[in-house]
Amino acid sequence: MENSRRLSSLNMPIYILFCIVLSPKYIQCYVTTMISYEYYSSDSNFLNKTEDSQTNGFVSTRGGQDAVLNGKAFILIDSNGFFYGCGQPANPTYVSNGVAIIQRGGNCTFSVKITRAKQYGATAVIIYDPFNSGSELYNMLQNSSDILAVYVQRSVGAFLFNITKNNRTQLNITLQPIAMPFDNYNDNENNIWFGSQSATIFIAISICILISLCIAWLIFYYCQRHRARTAKDRLQSRLSNAAKKALTKIPLVNVHE
């Protein structure tokens, strides 16, 4: 009875892995955001409004997932002239319902950057790497804040940053988080370990095979143990019967005083 319970408990991971394999869409997704923005361009002497939208960024799974509507973009600059959001701002201003645009770097974690931006009214944070020309996106797991945090590519982040840095321009940003399957993330489609459905199925099947081998070994072990016990019991039974037969053949001599 105890052995059957152990085997049934070992079967539970197999059932869970099969569920993962049969429904990969529930784990093969990430949250990006629709970035809509509007501003007045200096090319038109700040008379014509420019509006645009695009899907970009990796929303931190540790932060908020609520949309931000028409948030005023602002940047945090410290006393050394950096825009990392690590130190105290040189000219701190509170921007209600703001969207902070922060650069990656400065020897501090994402959590420090996001928390500092929230202190000055930010309801969302956009972070990008100004020194990396690639298109890598990161899930900012070091995030203890509850506001929306998005890591975007350099092209998008630098564009929004330069507009915000212009004191004559006011940039309003709307962020709408949306779920996207990893198969649509073209920048990592060649990396089989980043959101690949085939890699997930391969790992799940490998673990199932490993667990099956462990269960087979346990079954073989208990079968061998049962056979050894049965053989031992049979041997003891034969020896006992042989001893009884030997005792019956020994003549009994009655001694009279």
UniProtKB/TrEMBL annotation:
InterPro entries in the record: PA_dom_sf, PA_domain
Keyword annotations from UniProtKB, A to Z: Membrane, Transmembrane, Transmembrane helix
Native source organism of the sequence: Rotaria magnacalcarata
Tagged with keyword Phosphoprotein: no
Protein name, as recorded: PA domain-containing protein
Pfam family, one: PA
The UniProt record lists the keyword Membrane: yes
Transmembrane segments: 201-223
UniProt superkingdom: Eukaryota
Residues annotated as domain PA: 85-158
